[in-house]
Amino acid sequence: MNSRRIIEALLLSIGLIVAAWVLGQALLQFRAADRGVGVKGLAEREVPADIAIWPVAFSEADNDLPRLYQTLQEKNVKIAAFLQASGFKPEEISISAPSITDRQAQDYGNAQLAERLRYSGKSTLTVYTRQIDRVREAMTRLGELGKQGIALSSDNYENRTQFLFTGLNALKPAMIEEATKNARISAEKFAKDSDSRLGKIRHANQGQFSIEDRDASTPYIKKVRVVSSVEYRLVD
Q: What is the pLDDT along the chain (236 residues), one digit of tens a residue?
């Protein structure tokens, strides 16, 4: 009877050992199958802007409201003539309605009001064009308007010139392909260093495209950038 129990105990122990070994091998295989590497691939391009939005703004002040409107209108005509002489078509130039401020209404009771002109007005002409080089050249000649008595308002953020790039869709396929290739190169190096081989892609994320100025001095040159994230399986 004791011998039988001993044999059963031995068989049970052997069974547990075999089961543990099988489970261990399964876990090892699972971990081997679960091995992977995540990498990122970068692609960049420098491209010229293809649209310019150029506001040309100026301000005037007067105590006589009708005369102020007349002055704004006359100077709008001069600026429009300057822009057309610089090579811009009439349809590329738009004139916004003038903005008039009554300082007396704003500063009621201010003792210094008598020393100031009552009305101030601002007018803006905006050039919307694909002629980037013409915009840059004309901007260097704005002093000609100063000689005509037009004081331009260029310090305000709202008056800054914008240079845009709208050709992203044409670049996307080649840049995504380049970023993916660069990611694979990084993954292959990692696999080689770890004595492994690359398997199939587990997960891929194209990433967001960004368009920024190349630097503060050349806003008319853009840097287009995309980073793709790819995760590969690793196999022995």
A: 566 666 666 656 665 565 555 444 444 443 445 678 889 999 999 999 999 999 999 999 999 999 999 999 999 999 999 999 999 999 999 999 999 998 887 765 555 555 678 899 999 999 999 999 999 999 999 999 999 999 898 767 778 999 999 999 999 999 999 999 999 999 988 888 888 888 888 888 888 999 999 999 999 999 999 999 999 988 87
CB 121 within 8 A of CB 65: no
Torsion of CA 130, 134, 140, 143, to 10 degrees: -100
- Tokens at residue 167, please? 């050709």
pTM of full prediction above 0.85: no
Placement of tokens 């260097």 in the chain: 140
- Structure-token pair, residue 222: 């853009």
Tell me if 236 sits within 8 A of 29, measured CB to CB: no
Cα 153 to chain centroid distance, Å, stands at 27
Q: What gap in Å lies between CA 196 and CA 19, rounded to an integer?
A: 29
Residue whose structure tokens are 């003792």 = 111
Torsion 130-134-137-143 (CA) sign = negative
Measured between alpha carbons, how far apart are the two ends of the chain, in Å? 51
Amino acid at 125: L
- Give the CA distances from residue 80 to residues 55, 89, 90, 160, in Å, rounded to whole numbers and listed in that order: 12, 10, 8, 18
Spatial CA neighbour of 54 closest among 174, 189, 175, 152: 152
- The closest alpha carbon to 195, from 25, 35, 29, belongs to 35
